[in-house]
Amino acid sequence: LVVTNGKKEQFPEGAAVVELPAAPEGYEWLMPLMDYVPVSLLAGYCSSLAGRRFFNSIDPETWVWDNTTNWSAPGSMTIGTSKVEIHA
């Protein structure tokens, strides 16, 4: 699944592409937010459907915080050290 503000034609045939709208003229600074919010909502929805905790930190049923997960562990650099992998 590719979620982008680019055009579907830029990606290999058969890729599932969701095209996000461009920011209104004069509000280009909103583009990072417009790209982030839909994907975050999708990730939360998918984790709920799977019966998992979002980022495995907060139980959606009890709202109990679990600070022992890799995501919430101090010193964990899950975003800054992530690599992008493209599987064709």
Give a written overview of the molecule:
The model has no long low-confidence stretch (mean pLDDT 76). The protein has one helix at residues 31-49; strands at residues 2-4, 17-19. It has 88 residues and is an alpha+beta fold. Strands 1-2 form a two-stranded parallel ribbon. The radius of gyration is 16 Å and the shape is extended. It contains one helix and two strands. It starts with a strand and ends in a 39-residue tail after the last helix.
What descriptive keywords fit this protein?
single chain, 88 residues, alpha+beta, two-stranded parallel ribbon, 2 strands, 7% strand, extended
Rg, alpha carbons: 16 Å
**Order of helix and strand elements from N to C terminus:** EEH
Poorly predicted segments: none
The neighbouring-strand order within the major sheet is 1-2
What's the count of strands?
A: 2
Task: Describe the SSE topology.
Layout lengths: L1 E3 L12 E3 L11 H19 L39
Parallel strand pairs: 1-2
Condensed summary:
With 88 residues, this protein is an alpha+beta fold. It has one helix at residues 31-49, and strands at residues 2-4, 17-19.
